[in-house]
Design goal:
The chain is of the alpha/beta class. The chain is built from six helices and seven strands; from the N terminus they run E-H-E-H-E-H-E-H-H-E-H-E-E. The mean pLDDT is about 90.
């Protein structure tokens, strides 16, 4: 019988995956097992009935013991205010935040740079959830392609500063950072 792997210590974790891949549930489980006070930073907006139902379902899934802060645009200020040594902040999700920024006419480049700097200096641990949107077909519209490109950049920039990056596939977590060993050696 193989012994379980040693747990990874980390300050920031990025959880990536496609739609319904289990990324939100995995991030929630990580936060719940941290032993810290849990703060959920929601970037979604209930602009239609379907989205309001999704938000309500996510809230019910979290259950008791969570404080929720809704921040569709000012994610950086929310992280600065909520991250603390005795709390864990769970951001769900960066994809909706990026969409909100683009629709508000804010610069993704500037916001991503500020998020990256903020994550490197947080006062407490954070888990960030984001969609991997670049694995499918190319979007048919210029705005769709622009969004896909910015989402890829956002994920790469956050992954660069995160201690741990997990890719979710079919509900299963695969750690991609730190990179599994042994490293590849080319002959």
């Amino acid at each position: 019988m193989t012994p379980p792997p040693e747990p990874l210590s980390c300050r920031t974790a990025l959880i990536l995956g496609g739609a319904r891949s289990g990324k939100s549930r995995h991030a929630q489980t990580l936060a719940e097992t941290s032993g810290l006070t849990k703060v959920f930073i929601a970037t979604a907006q209930g602009l239609d009935d379907e989205m309001r139902e999704r938000i309500a379902r996510h809230r019910a899934d979290r259950g008791e013991g969570w404080r929720t802060r809704e921040e569709p645009l000012d994610l950086i200020a929310a992280l600065r205010a909520e991250a603390a040594a005795d709390r864990i902040a769970l951001v769900d999700c960066l994809t909706l935040w990026l969409s909100n920024l683009m629709h508000a006419g804010r610069s993704p480049e500037d916001e991503i740079a500020e998020l990256k700097a903020t994550l490197a200096a947080l006062a407490g641990p954070a888990i960030l959830v984001s969609n991997e949107v670049g694995l499918g077909i190319a979007p048919a519209t210029p705005l769709g392609r622009q969004f896909r490109d910015w989402q890829g950049r956002l994920n790469a920039e956050v992954a660069a500063v995160a201690d741990v990056v997990v890719a979710m596939t079919a509900g299963l977590p695969v750690i991609v950072k730190p990179a599994p060993r042994p490293a590849l050696v080319f002959m």
